[in-house]
């Protein structure tokens, strides 16, 4: 536990979100659309949206876990049946990958029904859009989110996250107009190592945060 405490850069997601909001303060007059990646990115997105006087919604993406190690991303899925596989996916059985894709797409459909049951997703066209997550190891889910949103023609697309390895930041810079990443150390184990408190975020909390009106 001592090693984890020494590695932590942020007290919690609230701390990281405050730092990101400070870095993004110039957007305040542009009423940005903050699109959080559930579930960990949503508490951060709520704070950033309030600080920048913007709108909050979610962009629904899920990583595809390797059959032998669900925590290791071999790709990602988005809504509208979008699928993106990493080169490492070639090392795994296609049938297992197909089952994982089906599982994660079903989860996305369920989340959309739960998170925004009475309205459509906010249209990002022509908006300054900030995609928020607590961090990313491979960049698979953030990359999927950015690729999905680019097709919807935002005026400007920004990726904002607490921590990622340098190679992931470079990957995201090719997809976004700007990447704001608070910590990008060469020695990167997992996103949770950068947070003293990295508790799970529940679906109920996501629903509550999305239903909170600004002000």
From TrEMBL:
InterPro entries: PRTase-like, PRTase_dom
Keywords on record: Transferase
Residues annotated as domain Phosphoribosyltransferase: 20-189
Keyword rRNA processing: no
Superkingdom field: Bacteria
CDD domains documented for this protein: PRTases_typeI
Gene Ontology terms, MF aspect: transferase activity
Full protein name: Phosphoribosyl transferase
């Amino acid at each position: 536990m001592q090693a984890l405490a020494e590695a932590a850069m942020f007290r919690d997601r609230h701390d990281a979100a405050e730092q990101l909001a400070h870095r993004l303060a110039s957007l305040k007059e542009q009423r940005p659309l903050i699109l959080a990646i559930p579930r960990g990115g949503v508490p951060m997105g709520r704070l950033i949206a309030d600080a920048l006087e913007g709108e909050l919604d979610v962009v629904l993406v899920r990583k595809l876990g390797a059959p032998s190690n669900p925590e290791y991303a071999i790709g990602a899925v988005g809504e509208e049946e979008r699928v993106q596989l990493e080169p490492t996916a070639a090392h795994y059985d296609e049938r297992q990958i197909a089952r994982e894709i089906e599982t994660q797409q079903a989860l996305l459909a369920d989340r959309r029904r739960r998170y925004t049951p009475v309205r459509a997703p906010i249209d990002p066209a022509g908006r300054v859009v900030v995609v928020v997550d607590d961090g990313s190891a491979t960049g698979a889910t953030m990359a999927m989110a950015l690729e999905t949103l680019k097709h919807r023609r935002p005026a400007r697309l920004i990726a904002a996250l607490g921590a990622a390895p340098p190679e992931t930041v470079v990957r995201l810079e090719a997809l976004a107009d700007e990447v704001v990443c608070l910590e990008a150390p060469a020695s990167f184990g997992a996103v949770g190592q950068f947070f003293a408190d990295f508790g799970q975020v529940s679906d109920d909390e996501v629903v509550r945060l999305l239903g909170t009106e600004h002000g």
